[in-house]
Amino acid sequence: MEVVRTPDERFAGLPGFPFRPQYVDVPSGDGGTLRVHYLDEGPRDADPVLLIHGEPSWCYLYRKMIPILVEGGHRAVVPDLVGFGRSDKPTRREDYTYQRHVDWMRALIEGLGLRNITLVGQDWGGLIGLRLAAEREDRFVRIVAANTFLPTGDQAPGEAFLRWQRFSQETPEFQVGQIVRGGCVTELSPEVVAAYDAPFPDDSYKAGARQFPMLVPTSPDDPAAEPNRKAWEVLRRWQKPFLTAFSDSDPITRRADRVFQAMVPGTKGQLHTTIEGAGHFLQEDKGEELARVIVDFIAHTAKNAS
Fold first, then answer.
1. CB distance 105 to 80 below 8 Å
2. Which CATH architecture fits 3-305?
């Protein structure tokens, strides 16, 4: 497995991002190791809030939320998926599979000894995180699903996703910052757009970002279809608190929150929210509001459990 690592100077002086990088090595899946970057803010003895980003962003997406979570007394653990941010980036698209992404994040969780986890997953952060929660129920105490889903390929994907999938494969230049900008309702400054571009000096760093849209199960015989069906079996009996916090302006995941609410027992009685004035990347558009929703959710469910 050939790997590139984004030079540190690419991350110097990013706006609103004062956090210190942390690293853990995980098995690569071919006998080697990969260096995975994560942020770890707040008291180490507090239960972790694991915030997982999606395509094609990185942990910079959560910069507005981390201070609010820390002020609430929580430990915010925010990894960069392999192929993104400061994490190592295999250069061959074939090195990226759905299963490997799950395995890489499982190795991070186990390597850091995370337990009593509150999962926050958006986009691929949910596709990966929900699999982890279903497969390692003992490590998770609650879930926040934000603009995400867990597809099995048994239903046709929406036209909005298919348009995105085609674009991701056909566009000559995969402009990460502009893609994030296009998934927001608010206008991003040139400096913030550049921050999303920072992990990707050139196309050799973008294999993971290019491959992600092709890893979403869109047919029943997809390699990830059966593992996701097994995860749904767990989620259909999931009694722990499960909150949906979707935005009002995301064509990709619209109405997926209703599916979770109908199928996951742990959603019953929760104060589900629709965050107004936010697009697909609701952390960018309304990150402070989403963070307050999470703090309130943890406090409410912790009180009820005591």
1. no
2. 3-Layer(aba) Sandwich (3.40)
- Report the C-alpha gap between 231 and 27 in whole angstroms: 23
Active-site residue flag, 40:
no
Active site annotation includes 154: no
Catalytic residue among 123, 222, 257, 285: 123
Separation between Cα atoms, residue 242 and residue 272, nearest integer Å? 9
Domain residue limits, the chain: 3-305
* Active-site option among 88, 103, 222, 250: 250
User: Is residue 199 classed as helix, strand or coil in its secondary structure?
Assistant: coil
Active-site pick, 53, 74, 272, 280: 280
The model carries a pTM of: 0.97
> Is there a catalytic annotation at residue 280?
yes
Phi, psi (degrees; rounded to nearest 5) at 169: -95, -25
Helices (H), the chain: 66-71, 98-112, 124-135, 159-170, 176-182, 190-197, 207-215, 225-235, 256-263, 282-305
pLDDT class of 306 with cuts at 50, 70, 90:
low
